[in-house]
Design a protein that fits this description.
Length: 104
C-alpha cells in the first residue's frame, strides 16, 4: 500500500489593510450685516460652482439662521475653498467669512 502523505501547498492570504475614509469637513458661511447679498452669491458661484438659485438659497439660509453649510468635502478641499472665498471677500474689502469644521 502506498503511503498517502502528499503535501498540499498552503496558501496564505495577506491581511488587507483597513483603509478608512477621510474625515469630511463642512464649509460654513457666516452671516454678516455688511457684505451685499449679490457679492455673497457671486462668491458662492465663483468658488463653489453653485448656480444662481442655489447660491441665493445658501445665502438666505445664512441670512436667516446666522450660518449655512455650503459644502462637505475632504479637509484639504474644504479648507482651500473656504480660504479662497475669504480671500476674494478681503480683496473686495468685505468681511465675508467662511469657516470649516468636522462633520459629525
Amino acid at each position: 500500500m502506498a503511503n498517502d502523505t502528499t503535501l498540499k501547498p498552503t496558501t496564505r492570504t495577506k491581511p488587507k489593510p483597513k483603509v478608512e475614509r477621510p474625515k469630511l469637513y463642512k464649509v460654513i458661511l457666516l452671516n454678516d450685516d455688511y457684505t451685499p447679498r449679490e457679492f455673497v452669491i457671486m462668491v458662492l458661484k465663483a468658488v463653489f460652482r453653485m448656480s444662481e438659485e442655489t447660491g441665493y438659497r445658501v445665502m438666505m439660509t445664512a441670512h436667516k439662521l446666522g450660518t449655512s453649510v455650503v459644502m462637505v468635502a475632504a479637509r484639504d478641499i474644504a479648507e482651500t475653498k473656504a480660504q479662497e472665498a475669504v480671500d476674494l471677500a478681503k480683496a473686495a474689502d468685505f468681511p465675508l467669512m467662511f469657516t470649516t469644521e468636522p462633520e459629525e
